[in-house]
Amino acid sequence: MTGASQARVLFAPETFNLGETTRAVEVARAVEAAGGEVAFMGYSRRFADYIREGGFTFTLLDPELSERDADQLIAADQGRSLRHPFTTDVVRRRVASERAIIERWQPQCIVIGTTLSLFISARASKVPLVYVRPYAMSRGHLTRMETFPLLSGHGAVASGVNRVTARVVGRLVRSVRWKPRSFRRVAAEHGVRLPARTIEALDADLNLIASLPPLLDQRPLATREVAVGPVFAQATGSLPTRVEALATVDRPVAYVGLGSSAGRELARTVLEQVSDLDIEIVSSAGRYLTDRDRAALAPNVQVYDFLPAHLLAGRIDASVIHGGEGTVQTACASGAPFAGIGLQAEQRLNLDECVRAGNAIRFTTRDLRRGNLPAIVDRLLTDAHLRGAARRMRDLSQPVGATRSAEMIVDLAQSTTRPV
User: Taking every annotated instance into account, which residue ranges of this chain make up the domain Erythromycin biosynthesis protein CIII-like C-terminal (predicted)?
Assistant: First the structure.
């Protein structure tokens, strides 16, 4: 084989995370379009079908991640828990499974999300690692940030605490050397010496920053970080007929999308509050609701388990979302302003970038308790400044990152010669 056909790339997102999974699928499509050969692996069934529906092979590895373990990892990611399922036995079994598929499939590089065990496996197997990730919480961001939204509020106290937190976190990430004992032990078993500092241990050979801010404003990035621009889901399929029919309705349409890190209570509360407005509502938050919850929704609310949200561009007048990278990018590309509730620091950081750009409002659980969401959505629908900024952001937010990522991944794969 010659040219790009030599690029053999294994994709390994954490498949309980919808944002990671969709981002990996978009980049994988671009790698295939460049002539590369692609396969997927993962540990969770939660969003594995999205990969298969995209036309890719997917191998579920041992030990399979249970739904409970996936929820525990989401809770840890959001700062709601310190517990995680990565015992020494689990990490040992994951690394064994990963090294086996690497040996069997012989990839020339591996593309990950937050698939932490591959920081051991890929190094042990001497396969270069590519991390496609958001700017928020990247090494370049953490070492240069001026504010860190530990507190979700907007007042003077929260702003002051968040500025102090940024200075403290910035100093810590330059010096902290903590790594879970299970990872240190298994790395040693495979002859892998993890970098001393924690932040460096989470660095791949190539870190592709799939975010809008560093691409637009040329803010400095860390070594081995490259800004490629937005990557968000371009799912196959079409919108449901009832959603298409809203184009003929003479009143505003709002979209509610809460990604894979929300919960039943949040979904119910958001949908109940926005349904009080004289608007049509389309939501992909159905996975969080029971049959009774769905039956109790107002007639102006349509709920689905999944929607190709990028197709809503030009059809919606506002969005209410969480703060996941892909969902935020999709909202920006729609050309409609949005309101976002950050469920963790990374999501609040994503939203704050858009608040500064002028096309978004960040709200909190306190706003929900006070019933403020209808007024926030009404502002999205009527504020000329928000709507003008959203139109300007639309042209800047097109998904250029997948093609740019694929070019660098293919180049890296083609330059790799694995030891025999």
Answer: 269-399
**CA 106, CA 125: separation in Å to the nearest integer?**
10
- Do residues 223 and 290 share a domain? no
Note whether 369 and 153 are within 8 A (CB): no
Does residue 186 sit in the same domain as residue 258?
no
* 174 and 297 housed in the same domain: no
Residue-wise pLDDT for 142-181, tens only, equals: 999 999 998 888 788 999 999 999 999 999 999 999 999 9
Pick out the chain residues at pLDDT < 70.
Answer: 1-5, 78-82, 417-420
Tokens for 87, please give them.
Answer: 């015992």
Evaluate whether 410 touches 36 at the Cβ level (below 8 Å). yes
User: Does residue 360 sit in the same domain as residue 303?
Assistant: yes
Residue 32 resides in a domain:
yes
DSSP codes, 323-385: --HHHHHHHHHHTS-EEE--SSHHHHHHHHHHHHHTSEEE--HHHHHTT-HHHHHHHHHH-HH
Q: For residues 12 and 40, what is the distance between their CA atoms, to the nearest angstrom?
A: 6
Is residue 420 assigned to a domain? no
| One domain for residues 170 and 39 | yes
Q: Is the same domain home to 270 and 215? A: no
Q: What is the pLDDT of residues 215-268, one digit of tens each?
A: 888 888 999 999 999 999 998 889 999 999 999 999 999 999 998 888 999 999
Domain that holds residue 368: 241-396
Q: Which of 204, 214, 197 is nearest to 401 (CA)?
A: 214
Sheet holding 225-227, edge to edge: 58-60, 37-42, 8-12, 109-112, 129-133, 206-209, 225-227
409 and 390 together in one domain:
no
Reference 206, options 404, 420, 16; nearest CA is: 404
The answer to whether position 236 is within a domain reads no
Handedness of CA 20, 26, 28, 30 (dihedral sign): negative
380 token code pair = 């999205």
Helix H or strand E segment including 37: strand 37-42
The C-alpha R_g of the chain, in whole angstroms, comes to: 21
